[in-house]
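Work Package 4 report. The design task specified in the project plan requires that, given a folded chain encoded as structure tokens, an amino acid be chosen for each position. We show below one input record used in the internal validation round.
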């Protein structure tokens, strides 16, 4: 069984409450306090142990939430108007291709480029903010960067990400 097999479910079970995938308010406060203290000074071994345990729990809960498809790239990220338009169109293409949008994850890099992942695999990058725009297209053995295209051209090019995602799925399941 490959990693993609873990994510075959299209819908998250409705019986699972979203709140069950977050730290309790007490745990969140303690985590925030310990993190702030850690960033400013040293903490004791007991505090570090507690912080590590809370950090691990937070990561596990985030993974479970992700696996169940209980997150949205639009809620999890601050996106520009062009990025919103781009990802709305990309999600339509994903859905038409039978891919679950809930497994899409974005990570903003320091130059405002968005690293785009499906499940745990990078499928490309796109930068739609600023004077210079660009998009990364991955194929099985090549990486191609396209620059200074129109938003519509980038939307059309996003089909390459879907092809690559499908290619990854085939490779992982063989």
């Amino acid at each position: 069984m490959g990693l993609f097999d873990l994510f075959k479910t299209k819908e998250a079970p409705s019986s699972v409450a979203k709140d069950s995938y977050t730290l309790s308010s007490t745990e969140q406060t303690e985590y925030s306090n310990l993190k702030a203290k850690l960033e400013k000074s040293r903490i004791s071994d007991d505090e570090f142990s507690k912080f590590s345990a809370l950090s691990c729990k937070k990561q596990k809960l985030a993974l479970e939430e992700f696996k169940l498809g209980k997150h949205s790239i639009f809620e999890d990220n601050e996106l520009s108007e062009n990025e919103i338009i781009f990802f709305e169109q990309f999600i339509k293409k994903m859905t038409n291709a039978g891919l679950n949008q809930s497994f899409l994850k974005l990570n903003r890099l320091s130059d405002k480029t968005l690293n785009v992942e499906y499940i745990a695999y990078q499928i490309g990058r796109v930068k739609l903010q600023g004077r210079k725009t660009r998009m990364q297209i991955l194929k099985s053995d090549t990486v191609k960067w396209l620059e200074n295209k129109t938003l519509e051209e980038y939307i059309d090019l996003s089909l390459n990400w879907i092809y690559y995602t499908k290619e990854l799925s085939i490779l992982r399941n063989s």
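The chain is about 45% helix and 15% strand. Validation will be extended to a larger panel in the next phase.
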